[in-house]
Design a protein that fits this description.
Helix content of chain A: 40-55%
CATH class of one domain in chain A: Alpha Beta
CATH class of chain B: Alpha Beta
Distance between the termini of chain A: 34 Å
Largest interface: A-B, 30 and 23 residues
CATH superfamily of one domain in chain A: Calcium-transporting ATPase, cytoplasmic domain N
Oligomer: heterodimer
Largest sheet of chain A: 7 strands, mixed
Structural class of chain A: alpha+beta
Shape of chain A: elongated
Strand content of chain B: 25-35%
Radius of gyration of chain A: 35 Å
Number of domains of chain B: 1
Structural class of chain B: alpha+beta
Chain lengths: ~625, ~70
């Protein structure tokens, strides 16, 4: 609680005590009505003086239809009619509700700030051999900064000395620390865990990852959802409408009564009108909708999903088509050995050994993936006479044996009989001393979570489409493996835009289309889709810029998670809107016909707001389903 | 041109009214106020005098909600 809230709390306690004291006094002693009025006015002014002041100022500025005015009129009216206790109680409960709301909002603000507590306060630079703490803003690109264990990396850069492991959980939601060694690029916002490192900065603070993310999250609630705009528009008409209805309720029935020759019953109808005013306060609605979205966005951020606006969080729930880019999104985008098929009594290890040594002279991605699969350090003494045969492969002497590694054409040229042909990805056939040793297949591997992610999306009735520049065969193999609905292959970057446009034109009006890419070369598609989702975007400025939703790590399962958060948030928003409106409407009717009294009215105002705010804060937490 | 300002305001409905008031200020193309982050983003019309427009916007906000501040 801040000092302003504490002050209100003290006022609430003081006036509550006073009301109880005066009520007891009233019950046990015969107190004169005027004395009683004065006694009740003390707690009334303690609790309500600021509301009365604001209402008065509002009248002077011709801004009468606000809550302060509603409360002032309702309570002054109740006091004037002799319902002293009700008058004070309405003001008291109104303030309790306001305090509660202010605390709840403050708490969510703090929660979000804590989630996003990645803003570095300083950077360490070396000046005359001494470590000096400076404002990250003042560090120029190319400066060497020192990050000690426990400190945040303040600015993006490259490690030039030392090695450590970094905690990236604030950025990606990933709890396993990431190892970083000399030469690695590090991004700001990570927490250095184990060793002191020196970093040469490659960006200014303002352009660093941490600044971009903070900016993005802080501004996300400025892009308002349809529900928020609806509520604001609604409140604009609702408050005056209710005020005029209350006025009509106070005047019309007594006048009609008089015309009919019955007693006017002014007091009854004025009390009803005041009850009406208390019920009508639009706070519950106006606060709960943005609070829910704010919570939803906060919840997404903790899970490494940055949503750039409430409108996008809202749109995610209506997504019916998700278009994926293949490489780097559903697949890892790096080549890996994924099949070893030895023949003629060679073992898997031997096959890999010969292939890795034969290819040891090359830096081609295929060779690198073979070396990676082999694992151990290569002893280059063992290999000689490496001969690259363009378009075919390589031949070399390994341990004095002639090894050939390459495609089918190479085997044919060498007159070697291949036993089984493999067509997944790229196949490397190997022969040792003119004997066929087997085949190693290398391809871009599907991410471990892709299949599960696609299955999850299909279960929610979403049509999945994959776009790729790769050949139809490779595309079909990946699509088969992960179970995607539709594939378009051999596309140029421009074709991807037209493909997305085609899908946009066939989908239903309320259905949304999301495009998921890794941010490399697909910025135009990201901005063309209803929702552009960039994946593994850490450090890729273009993607953070072009996308509406940024997945900090590269796990496709996060898409389903984002949609779940979106749906939950929207459900809470709908619950709040329906609940608040329904309770208010029922109470308004009951109030107008005289069944609901001031106490019901207080519940309809403060109680509904408290429930709506509590419900809204649920959006911050992710429930496992 | 777009600029972001910090604001102080206590109730969400007042924030909505302030947003409306800023939007209706001359020289302002669009405005958005987030009650959750207490931030006001103003998009100015081309060639608008930012300081003068903000003064006017602040006065307009004060008219609809006395208990508010814009830090600019």
């Amino acid at each position: 609680m801040n000092s302003k809230q504490k002050k209100v709390l003290y006022r609430i306690i003081i006036s509550a005590v006073l009301v109880v004291v005066v009520s007891v006094l009233d019950a046990v002693l015969p107190v004169n009505i005027w004395v009683l009025a004065v006694l009740y006015l003390i707690p009334y002014f303690v609790i309500g003086y600021d509301i009365l002041k604001k209402a008065f100022k509002g009248i002077l500025k011709r801004q009468v239809f606000d809550e302060n005015f509603l409360m002032a009129v309702a309570t002054v009216g109740a006091l004037a009619l002799g319902d002293f206790r009700e008058g004070v109680a309405v003001m008291l409960f109104y303030q309790i509700g306001e305090l509660f709301q202010s605390c709840a909002v403050g708490k969510s603000r703090k929660n979000i700030a804590a989630l996003m507590d990645i803003r570095p306060d300083y950077a360490n630079i070396i000046e005359d051999g001494q470590l000096v703490k400076v404002d990250p803003d003042e560090v120029e690109t190319g400066t060497v900064i020192v990050v000690n264990p426990g400190e945040k990396v303040p600015i993006d850069g490259q490690i030039i000395e030392g090695s450590t492991s970094l905690n990236t959980s604030a950025l990606t939601g990933e709890s396993v620390p990431r190892d970083a060694v000399c030469g690695d690029e590090v991004i700001s916002g990570c927490i250095n865990l184990t060793g002191t490192i020196k970093i040469r900065t490659t960006k200014e603070f303002g352009d660093s990852t941490v600044s971009k993310i903070l900016d993005l999250v802080e501004n996300s609630s400025l892009k308002k959802s349809r529900s928020e705009n609806f509520i604001t528009r609604f409140a604009k008409y609702y408050t005056p409408a209710v005020c005029y209805s209350a006025l009509a309720l106070a005047l019309l029935p007594p006048v009609v009564n008089m015309l009919m020759g019955n007693p006017a019953a002014w007091q009854t109808w004025i009390v009803r009108a005041l009850t009406f005013l208390v019920i009508s306060c639009p706070c519950a609605l106006v606060i709960s909708v943005p609070l829910s979205f704010f919570g939803g966005i906060g919840c997404a951020s903790t899970n490494g999903i940055l949503v750039k606006g409430s409108n996008y969080l809202e749109a995610l729930a209506d997504t019916k088509y998700i278009v994926f880019d293949k490489t780097g999104t559903l697949t890892k985008g790096v080549f890996e050995v994924n099949g070893i098929y030895p023949e003629n009594n060679f073992s898997e290890e031997e096959l890999l050994y010969y292939a890795a040594y034969a290819e040891s002279g090359s830096s081609h991605p295929i060779s690198i993936s073979l070396k990676n699969a082999y694992g151990s350090q290569l002893d280059l003494e063992r290999v000689s006479d490496i001969e690259e045969i363009a378009g075919h492969g390589v031949a070399a002497l390994v341990d004095g044996k002639k090894v050939c590694a390459g495609n089918l054409k190479l085997m044919k040229r060498q007159g070697i009989q291949v036993i089984t042909e493999h067509d997944e990805g790229t196949a490397v056939y190997v022969s040792v001393n003119q004997v066929y040793a087997g085949c190693i297949t290398i391809s871009d591997v599907v991410k471990p979570t892709s299949k599960e992610a696609i299955a999850g999306l299909k279960q929610s009735g979403i049509r999945t489409v994959m776009l790729t520049g790769d050949t139809a065969k490779t595309a079909a193999r990946v699509a088969d493996e992960i179970g995607i609905d539709e594939v378009r292959s051999e596309l140029l970057p421009a074709d991807k835009v037209s493909e997305v446009e085609r899908l946009l034109s066939v989908k239903g009006k309320k259905e949304k289309l999301a495009f998921v890419g890794d941010g490399i070369n697909d910025a135009p598609v990201l901005s063309r889709a209803d929702i552009g989702i960039a994946m593994g975007a850490l450090g890729s400025d273009a993607a953070i810029e072009a996308a509406d939703v940024v997945l900090m790590d590269d796990d496709p399962a996060k898409i389903a998670l984002a949609m779940r958060i979106s749906m939950k948030t929207l459900r809470i928003v709908r619950e709040n809107i329906v609940f608040a409106l329904a309770v208010k409407l029922v109470c308004l009717v009951l109030g107008a016909i005289g069944i609901a009294n001031m106490w019901v009215a207080i519940f309809a105002d403060v109680g509904v707001m408290v429930i709506a705010v509590l419900n809204a804060t649920r959006a911050l937490k992710l429930t496992r389903s | 041109m777009k600029k972001t300002y910090s604001v102080e305001v206590d109730c969400p409905n007042c924030a909505a009214k302030m947003e409306e008031a800023v939007k209706n200020t001359k020289g302002v193309k669009d405005a958005s106020l987030s009650f959750m982050t207490l931030k006001l983003r103003v998009e100015f019309e081309d060639g608008a005098d930012v300081d003068a427009v903000m003064k006017e916007a602040y006065a307009n906000c004060k008219k609809v909600e006395d208990d508010c501040e814009i830090i600019f």
